[in-house]
Every structure is written in C-alpha cells, then in structure tokens.
Amino acid sequence: MHDTHIHTEMLYMEPIHLVARPQHPLLRQERALDWGDLMAYRWLVWPRGTPIRNALEGALAAAGHALPQGSVESNSVTLNLTLLGHSDMIGMASHHAALRFSHMGALDVLRALAREPEAAAALLQDFADAAAGEPRILPALRPLRDLLALPPEQLEPLGRRLVQHLVLVAQACLLRRHAPHAVADAFAATRLEDGGAGRVAGAIDPRAVDIGAILERAFPA
Question: Is the pLDDT of residue 114 over 50?
Fold first, then answer.
C-alpha cells in the first residue's frame, strides 16, 4: 500500500466586497466612505479561520482597526441574507456573490475603490514590488493601471475585465513570492504571455515551461 501525497496550487483569487441592504444609510452618503463610517454599524462576518474572514482581518489590521463590537459570525447564506436585508448590518461577499445579490436587488456593494484611490495605488505598488525583475508580470501591470485610472462611470461596464486582469496579476505575484520557480514561471508563461492562450485548457506551448519539475512536485516519488 502506497501513501498518496496531494499538492495543491492556487488557481483562482477573488476580490471581497462589503455589502449592505439597498436602503442602507451609507449608500445614500455622498461623501467618500471611510473606516469610521463602517465601524459605526454592526458587522456580519464569516467564521474565524475561513479565507474570507482572514482577508477581512488582514485588511482591518493594515488600516489599524479591529472588528466592531457586537459583530455576528455566520456561514449560513440564508441567515446572512435575512439579517442583512432587515437591518443596517454590514456583511461580506465574494465578487461574484456580491454581483449576483446586487442584480437580484437583495444587497448592494459599498463601493470604496473609486472613492479611495490611495488603496488602488497601494495595491499596484505591492504588485510592482513583487514583480520586480520579472519581464512578463511588469507589462501586465500597465493595462491594470490604465483601467484603475478610468472615471467610475467608465470603469463600471469594464468591471469583469478589471477583475479578470486583477486576479491574473495577483496570482502571478503571489506565486512569484511563495511558489517554486518552475510553478511561478509556468503561470507567467501560460497566463501572461502568448496572448493569454493558457486560459484555455491545453492551449499552451509545453516547450515554454519546466513540465518535469512541476509534475515531480505534484507527484513525488
């Protein structure tokens, strides 16, 4: 009987949004939202240890904040929609879930990116630091900067394009920082080069990547 070792790699990374009911007072506020505005309300959060909760706590810590007092933990979509729809609580949702709930009219996104350009600038700088010396990631930052520089009314219909490009660049930077060179190199070669051919299963040039090193890592002897 042989032991089986399974190695996993990050294949997808999705932005997280803060959401609230469409009638929430913050959505009627004309000035830019800040953390103080958000801290004035109770939050509905995912349980500790979940990826979405970890991402939230990391963002709060970077901004010098902690979860508001009286925050409620729940991983039930039904309960979360009920609580958010009948109160002024602030919740969290992945990008696709937030868009779906918004289209349904159940929730709306507390938009902050366009109102806080310094957040986008900090993100781009972090990507640039991670991509230093990598000729395939650095060029991919240029269209991302161009998109983020657009006025909100022009960026809105390009949301899916922005998120797709943001995810690809973020994945490439994270792999370059934390993954073996062969894995990071293969991702950059197949996702960022060759017109993005690697986004289609099998449509890659195997001569451009170290397939042997990747397979050896995935299936060690």
Answer: no
Please name the residue that has the structure tokens 């979940």.
50
Listed residue (169, 200, 118) closest to 15, CA to CA = 169
102 contacts 108 by C-beta, under 8 angstroms? yes
| Rounded Cα distance, 155 and 166, in Å | 13
Strand order from edge to edge, sheet including 16-20: 91-94, 16-20, 108-109
- Helices 138-148 and 159-178 pack at an angle, to 10 degrees, of 150
Number of C-beta neighbours around residue 158 at 10 A: 12
Pairing of strands 16-20, 91-94: antiparallel
3-state secondary structure of 13: coil
Q: Three-class SS of residue 45?
A: strand
Mark out the alpha helices in the chain (DSSP H runs): 35-39, 51-62, 77-85, 95-104, 117-131, 138-148, 152-155, 159-178, 181-187, 211-218
Q: What value does the mean pLDDT of the chain take?
A: 76
Record the pTM: 0.47
